[in-house]
Automatic annotation (TrEMBL):
Coiled-coil regions listed: none
UniProt-listed InterPro entries: DUF6242_C (IPR058667), Sialidase_sf (IPR036278), WD40/YVTN_repeat-like_dom_sf (IPR015943)
Membrane-crossing residue ranges in chain numbering: 45-66
Compositionally biased tracts (Low complexity): 1-20
Keyword Metal-binding appears in the UniProt entry: no
Name this protein carries in UniProt: DUF6242 domain-containing protein
Species the sequence originates in: Thermomonospora umbrina
Ranges where the record places region Disordered: 1-36
Keywords: Membrane, Transmembrane, Transmembrane helix
Positions of the DUF6242 domain: 337-566
Length: 807
């Protein structure tokens, strides 16, 4: 890509943090109280039936039998996309996912908005592009580096553009991420090393096309809390290679104040940056003020730009473009507010231009460049007022974009076809993205993002499945942020079961994660909400109609309390989970009265100092109950995971046994446990130095009293291999797992006659290829294996149903 040539119509997204874990200084944000509760009216699914059909067709085409030598993948012809089999709740009042659009940029007739979509499969980046000045949008393709995948968490937050190219920036735990594009339609994610100039302790507030290339601004903190923030400028000729300037090499002096650069602007010759100074004033708290610096040599050297500050000044922001440089002072005069605009030809000397005194004025959110004018976006009483000026002196209102009290604008841009505002809508319990445009004479036109195929897939996941009495299979999971269950009598067709309607009055984030069948009926458990996590426990006599179990034993105290797995046996039913840093167990003989289980020793269940305990799985049998999980052990000043198992003859009293690790493993944990009579098999994962994540298996011949560790083989070409489910059947054991790094995981299997000797294989078809594939629940039903899981890709997410013959 060649270096961007200025002047051009630059990106005009607002300055916001690239890291959602903190709240940056954003003077354009409206201060609004949050409202709890759900939306009063249902909203449409975010992906139409046509889009789901298209995904199903693509996946169905991919169902192939891959052949080869002894290590050839297994046939996956019995794996099918199941988005149409597991129905959503038709009365859902929101979509159950979290979406944001955090920035937008435009050049000519091309508009690109960036953000993310988060659901059960993690958070995925979104690039929405329009090539017709915003009349229609589609999801832009993103090509990862060779040999890599677009991983969950790789999310763009900022975007900038010129006539020669585009760049987007995001954050990950180790630092930054960069994307580039020639035309805004197709994007390339650069290798992580390309963003090495953006360090872990940095915050990037704005990326802007200007001067000979691109400029990014923000701050860095040696302490990590940014009370000592120092300004940083990054410069790039093409968006691919960046130089980091700070300290003496930058030459922007903050004095005794902390200083964060919040914004950048340019007229093609001069660069401006706007900063926020914060001085600790002792007992009176911190005082903040704005300042502007200018550079005439492409950002190499800077000098203070002394923008006049008349009486009543309470804020400062900048803008620039082909028509010159502008600065706006927010003026408070009693109860009234207005904007005083200043203009400059060189960034050094400033003259009074005009004022903006819109009715209900709150603040000027953006000063944007247009080909022959400046555009101001003013926030005023639940609307964004658009104004234009040829020179910064005379401003004319050209329209408005309506904003509700729960909409937070985060970015804006202009094209010849209109002005665009993006942000987050928190009208309901979940957050949704919004994108609105005003096309001049065409008026305001909100963009219906539910009509953009693949932009924001529906929330639908199936966690596990169990076969029970009466020839019925029950699968559980969640849709639209609510818990869900489905039943089947043939394994191929599924009906949605009736869960208690009052569950939908709870907070978003419900999910059923386990289901079991016993002498008194069905029991399912999971998460009853994510703010905070609380137990969700439901039961059913027939699997089709469920009621919530409300018992004081499931009420949390001060810490997070979770129910994650359940099993049945002769004594009754057991549920396992966590209580803060401790393991938690509940027992009932009749599904009506529940009690908390106890450890035989004080620390069998309770955390021992820093040594947390957790239970992931539980199984019942003639031995009573057995559970699998792990503990943290402190060794040489650090903690490591150690696999663990618990046993109980009656479901009330539990004994902890730390399990041995095979040679070469540094740590490990148990994820799933099953039983065939007295023989127990547990599977999990561990870390092998120099090799990565590898599978673990443990075998007990005596109902969990003694255990033996084995290391199942790595499938051919396997990398970071993790078991996800295990099944006991008449001829032995079957386990499923995944291989690959996040964003590109494929399903693998292991088979064993005894839990000691395992044979590994890869699975092809829809259980392999781009995206993440998983099988997380297994049972035997109708003489075959019945497995459920999911597929998560860049632009699609849906359940998967797997029905291979018994091995």
């Amino acid at each position: 890509m060649g270096g961007p040539q200025w002047p051009a119509l630059p990106a005009a997204g607002g300055a916001q943090a690239a890291d959602a874990s903190y709240q940056p200084y954003e003077p354009w944000r409206l201060d609004r109280p949050q409202r709890r509760g759900r939306r009063p009216a249902a909203r449409p699914l975010l992906v139409g039936a046509a889009a789901l059909a298209a995904v199903a067709v693509v996946a169905a085409v991919a169902v192939t039998v891959l052949r080869g030598g002894d290590s050839a993948p297994q046939a996956a012809a019995d794996a099918v996309p199941a988005g149409g089999l597991f129905a959503s709740n038709p009365r859902a009042s929101f979509d159950g996912r979290t979406q944001h659009l955090t920035d937008v940029a435009a050049v000519g007739s091309t508009v690109v908005a960036v953000g993310d979509d988060a659901g059960a499969g993690g958070s995925h980046g979104r690039f929405l592009v329009s090539v017709d000045s915003g009349r229609t949008f589609q999801v832009a393709g993103v090509r990862p580096p060779a040999g890599q995948a677009n991983a969950p968490g790789d999310v763009p937050r900022l975007v900038a553009a010129s006539t020669s190219g585009w760049v987007a920036f995001g954050r990950r735990p180790a630092g930054g991420i960069l994307w580039t594009s020639r035309d805004g339609r197709s994007w390339e994610r650069l290798p992580y090393t390309a963003a090495s100039a953006f360090q872990r302790q940095d915050r990037v507030q704005r990326i802007q096309a200007g001067g000979p290339g691109f400029i990014a601004v923000g701050s860095t903190s040696a302490k990590g809390d940014f009370t000592d923030a120092e300004p940083v400028v990054w410069l790039s000729p093409d968006g691919r290679g960046w130089e980091r300037l700070t300290g003496d090499s930058l030459g922007i002096d903050a004095g005794k104040a902390s200083l964060t650069l919040m914004n950048a602007a340019s007229d093609g010759r001069t660069l401006l940056v706007e900063g926020k100074r914060v001085v600790n004033a002792g007992r009176s708290g911190a005082r903040s003020s704005g300042a502007v610096w200018s550079s005439g040599d492409g950002g190499r050297t800077w000098k203070i730009a002394r923008v006049p500050a008349p009486k009543g000044s309470v804020g400062l922001s900048i803008g620039g473009g082909p028509k010159g440089l502008l600065a706006v002072r927010e003026i408070r005069d009693g109860d009234e507010r207005h904007a005083q605009i200043y203009s400059s030809g060189d960034g050094s000397s400033w003259s009074e231009a005009g004022t903006i005194e819109t009715s209900g004025y709150q603040r000027t959110a953006w000063l944007l460049p247009a080909a022959q004018s400046h555009v101001a976006i003013v926030l005023a009483e639940a609307k964004a007022v658009l104004l234009t000026s040829p020179d910064g002196a005379d401003w004319q209102e050209t329209g408005t974009i309506s904003l509700t009290a729960r909409q937070q604008p985060l970015g804006a841009a202009t094209t010849g076809g209109g002005t665009f505002v993006v942000g987050t809508d928190r009208t309901g319990d979940d957050s949704d993205a919004f994108l609105s445009t005003h096309g001049g004479a065409g008026g305001e036109r909100p963009i219906d993002l539910s009509r953009v195929p693949g932009a924001f897939p529906p929330d639908r996941s199936v966690s596990t499945v169990t076969a029970g009495g009466g020839g019925l299979a029950v699968a559980v999971g969640g849709t639209d942020g609510d818990a869900a269950a489905w039943t089947s009598i043939d394994g191929g067709t599924w009906l949605r079961a009736a869960l208690p309607t009052d569950l939908t009055s709870r907070a978003q984030g419900q999910q059923l994660t386990a289901v079991t069948h016993g002498a008194r009926g069905w029991l399912a458990v999971g998460i009853g909400g994510t703010r905070p996590r609380v137990p969700l426990v439901v039961s059913s006599a027939n699997g089709t109609v469920w009621q919530e179990i409300e018992d004081d034993a499931f009420k949390p105290d001060d810490e997070s309390l979770t129910t994650g797995a359940a099993a049945s046996a002769g004594p009754g039913y057991a549920i396992v989970g966590t209580d803060g840093d401790s393991a938690a167990v509940w027992f009932s003989a009749d599904l009506k009265t529940w009690e908390r289980g106890q450890g035989a020793d004080d620390h069998d269940l309770k955390a021992d100092g820093d040594a947390a305990r957790w239970m992931r799985s539980v199984v019942g049998g003639p031995f009573g109950f057995a559970a699998g999980g792990g503990v943290f052990k402190g060794e040489e000043g650090r903690l490591r995971r150690a696999p663990a198992a618990w046993s109980s003859a009656d479901g009330r009293n539990w004994v902890l046994r730390e399990l041995p690790l095979p040679r070469g493993f540094a740590d490990g944990t148990v994820e799933r446990v099953v039983a065939a009579g007295q023989r127990l098999v547990a599977v999990g994962e561990g870390f092998v130095p120099g090799k990565g994540v590898a599978p673990l298996a443990f075998v007990s011949p005596d109902g969990g009293q003694t255990w033996r560790a084995v290391a199942p083989p790595i499938p051919p070409g396997g990398v970071d291999v993790r078991p996800t489910a295990v099944l006991a059947h008449a001829r032995g054991f079957l386990a499923t797992g995944v291989t690959g790094r996040p964003g590109g995981t494929d399903v693998v299997t292991w088979t064993s006659p005894d839990g000691v000797t395992w044979t590994a294989a890869r699975v092809g078809g829809v259980l392999a290829g781009p995206g993440d594939q998983r099988i997380e629940g297994l049972t035997v039903f109708g003489g075959r294996v019945l497995g459920v899981g999911g597929f998560v890709g860049d632009h699609a997410e849906q359940p998967v149903l797997w029905r291979p013959p018994l091995p």
